[in-house]
Amino acid sequence: MTASPEATATPTEPQIQVDRYQKLAERVLAGETISREDALSILTAPDIDVLPILSAGYQIRHRYFGRTVQLYFLMNAKSGLCPEDCHYCSQSKISTAPVPKYNILKRDDLMKAAEIAANQGAKTYCLVISARGPNEREMSAVEQIVPEIKQKYGLDICACLGLLNREQADRLKACGVDRVNHNLNTSEEHYADICTTHTYADRVQTLRHVRDAGMEMCSGGIIGMGESPEDVVSMAFDLRDLGVHSIPLNFLNAIEGTPLQGNMDLNANQCLKALAMFRFVNPDRELRISGGRELHLRSLQPMGLYVANSMFVGDYLTTKGQAPQADYDMITDLGFEVTQNIEPASA
Question: Quick one: which of 86, 140, 195, 327 has the fewest CB in 10 Å?
Answer without folding.
Answer: 140
